[in-house]
Known about the structure:
Layout: H1 2-25, H2 31-41, H3 46-53, H4 61-72, H5 77-97, H6 102-109, H7 112-120, H8 125-138, H9 146-156, H10 161-179, H11 181-184, H12 186-193, H13 199-219, H14 237-244, H15 246-251, H16 271-291, H17 296-315, H18 321-337, H19 349-383, H20 389-398, E1 405-409, H21 411-421, E2 426-428, E3 433-435, H22 452-466, E4 470-474, H23 480-485, E5 489-494, E6 504-509
Parallel strand pairs: 1-2, 1-4
Antiparallel strand pairs: 2-3, 4-6, 5-6
Amino acid sequence: xxxxxxxxxxxxxxLFLAVxxxxxxxxxxxxxxxxxxxxxxxxxxxxxxxxxxKYEGHPGIWHLCLMPxxxxxxxxxIMQVFHLLLATVTVYLFVRYAPFNRxxxxxxxxxxxxxxxxxxxxxxxxxGLLLITLFCILFxxxxxxxxxxxxxxxxxxxxxxxxxxxxxAIGFALCCEYLLxxxxxxxxxxxxxxxxxxxxxxxxxALIGIGxxxxxxxxxxxxxxxxxxxxxxxxxSTEFSNVIKLISRALLPxxxxxxxxxxxxxxxxxxxxxxxxxxxxxxLILCSIFxxxxxxxxxxxxxxxxxxxxxFFYVKYYxxxxxxxxxxxxxxxxxxxxxxxxxxxxxxxSLSALPQRLFSSFVTFIFICQFIGGxxxxxxxxxxxxxxxxQVAEYIKAEDRQNMTMVGEVDYxxxxxxxxxxxxxxxxxHGSRFxxxxxxxxxxxxxxxxxxxxxxxxxxxxxxxxxxxxxxxMNRSLDPELSEQHNLTxxxxxxxxxxxxxxFYLYLMPVP
Length: 512
C-alpha cells in the first residue's frame, strides 16, 4: 500500500510538472515577477538587497533564493524553472502525506492557486506554500521535532507579509496548546511529559518569535517610502463588505472566461450570486468554524489567521487574488492538521459527530471549485498573452536597438521589458532617473500618469544631454500632435494583453 501511495504521488507530481511546464512556457512574466528578478540581479550584495527591499513590502527570502540564479544567467526564464520545481515538490509532498483521499488530492493539485497563482506566476508565495506543507507534515510529531517546526516557521515568516500573519497565528495557537495542555489536553500533556529534552521545545518557540520579530523589522518601511503608506481605521461599509467577499473569492476562485480574466470572478457576474455573496461568505466561515469545534488548536489557528488576514486587507492593503489565496491556504492547513490536534468533548453527541461526517464533503466542494478555477486559468493563459513585455524585448533585439538609450513610462510596465532585454538600466520618467527595478519611494510617487508633454520634454532634455537617438517605451499611445511636434517615429505597438496596462507603444526620437 505504501509503495502504491508513493507511485501515485510521483505520477501526479510528474503530471503536474508537465501541465505546469506547458502553461509556464506560454506565460509571459509581468512586472511583479520581473521586479523580484531585477532586485536580485542588480543588488551587489545581500546588504544592498535588503536595503532595496525596504520599499517592497515583502521580506527577502525569495530574493535571496534568486540571487545565485542571477549570477548564473541574466535570463529570467531560469526563475520560472526554479519556481515550477518548487511547486512540483509541494505537490509531491502534499499527495504523499496529506490526509485526503485520492480524488481530493488530484483536484487539489490542479486548483487555481496551486496550479496557476503559485506555480505558473513566479512569485514568493510558492515558497510559503512549500514551507506550510512541510509544517503540516511535521505537525503530527510537532513536540518531538519542535526545533524543525521553529526553523520552518522562521523561514515562513520571511516569505511574505501574509505568511507572516499565518506564522503569528500558528505560533500563538501552539503556545496556547502547550501552556494549557494539563487543563484541556491530558493525552497531549502525557506525550509531552515523556519527552526527555524539553529544551528543544523552548528553542523552537524562540525561533518562531525571532522569525516574527525580524520579519516585522524588515517590513518596517523607511521614512521616504511612497507605496501603501496609508492605514484605514475608520469604518467604511463598502470597504468592509468588499473584504468579507474575499472569503468567497479565495475559496471559490473561478475566473471570468475573458481576455482580462485575472483577478476577476465569474460568479460575481451573476446578479443572484451578488445578492447572496455576503451571507455565503459568512456561511463558509461558520462551516469552517463548526468543523473545527472539537479541535481547539485547529480552530484557533483558523480564527486568528483568517481574522488577521481580513484585518490586514482592510486597514493596510486590499491586494489581489494571489494575496487573498492565503485565506484558502489557511483553510487548507486547518483541514490538514485537524485530525492531529487534541480534541475536546462537546456537550451534545450529535453536535460532536456531525462535523466529522461533513468534513470530507466540505473539503471536496472547495477543492472542486479550485479545480474549475485552475483549469480555466490555464486555458486562458494558453489562449491570450499575459504581458507584452517579452514580445517587445524580442522585437527590440530583432531590430538591433537593445543598446539604445531608452525612456520608459510608466516605469513599472517598462521594467518588464528591461528584465527580458537583460539590460542594465533605462531612464524612468517617474522619479526622473535611470534604473532597472522600480524604487517605490516618495521621489517616484504619487503613482499617477505623467502628461505626454512632460514625458517628451524630459526625453528631449535627455536627448540633448546624450546627443543620441532615444527609444521611448510607453504603455499608452502618445498624443499625435505632440509626436509630430517632436519629430517622433511610431515604430510599433503591442496591445491586448491579460494585464491590460502591459501593452506597449514604441517611438523613436531621432538625433537632434
